[in-house]
Amino acid sequence: MNVKDLDPDASPQAAFGARLRRLREEQGWSQDQLGARMEYSSTHISSVETGRKMPTLRLARRADTALGTGDSFEREWREMHQGSLLEGFPEYVEHEGRAVELRLFEIGIVPGLVQTPEYARVLAESAVRRGAITAEQAKERVDFLAERQAALLRPNPPMLLLVMDESCIRRPIGSTKVMAAQLQRLVEFAELPNTVVQVAPFHIGERRTFDLPVNLLTMPDWSVLAYAESQAQGHLHRETTSVLPMLTAYHQLQAESLPQAESVAMITAARKGYQ
Q1: Do 100 and 213 have their domain in common?
Q2: What CATH number is attached to the domain comprising 26?
Q3: How do residues 203-257 score in pLDDT, each as one tens digit?
């Protein structure tokens, strides 16, 4: 696309690209030079500047760092993606990437941080068919999830404790191939030195302490944040009076759940049903 053909008013994506180009030119940098500072190729920078490629959260943050724009590109990115992410979730993700320990509980689907791309794509495409999101927003969800997963693959990665309701491994999502690969991913995930995987079996009945997904984050200063979500929105809890009861309930849930060895055995057995 010719630079003169780009209309910043055409879309938020075009406005983002036009601003990136303008600030780069004000610095007197070529696309190669900006790309080197942001660890992206000049081709990638060009595609974002001309609106051909949707910017990611990672790119927005690196643009802010390279161009000294505070968090303005990141805020612009979040405004662009409000429709594809649950209310309250972007705020949670800001903390997730810095946490030293994550405790997760999920019902019905495998938690996002351990989803395969194919599993995540099936869920996103299903939302498109229901009319809940657009095809573009579905792609954004999958790309955003990949960024969240990559953020945890850092030096000194966080401890990740995962409890899944048994429905997560019993509910078929996509083809048998997709499910087999997803369950194998869980088995491999359990082998990592910084992870614990447990299944909360159906037979614990009323002793399951949560009826909604819950995430608990331990931050570098050892404060604990809690994030819980319903069908319509998510909420980040910071107050001790709200967080401590959820932390207690999580510990009680772990005590009722299967140990990791038994959990992996159950996941492995479930996987055989998809071969």
Answers
A1: yes
A2: 1.10.260.40
A3: 999 999 999 999 999 999 999 999 987 655 678 888 889 899 999 999 999 999 9
> What band does 2 get if pLDDT is binned at 50, 70 and 90?
very low
pTM above 0.85, yes or no: no
Residues 153-180: tens digit of each pLDDT: 888 899 999 999 999 999 999 999 999 9
Task: Give yes or no: residues 9 and 101 share one domain.
Answer: no
Domain that holds residue 210: 89-112+154-272
Q: Is residue 126 part of a domain?
A: no
Rounded Cα distance, 59 and 46, in Å: 13
Specify the CATH number for the domain of residue 261.
3.30.870.10
Together in a domain, 63 and 165? no
Is 40 within the bounds of a domain? yes
Using CA atoms, how far apart are residues 72 and 147, in angstroms rounded to an integer? 19
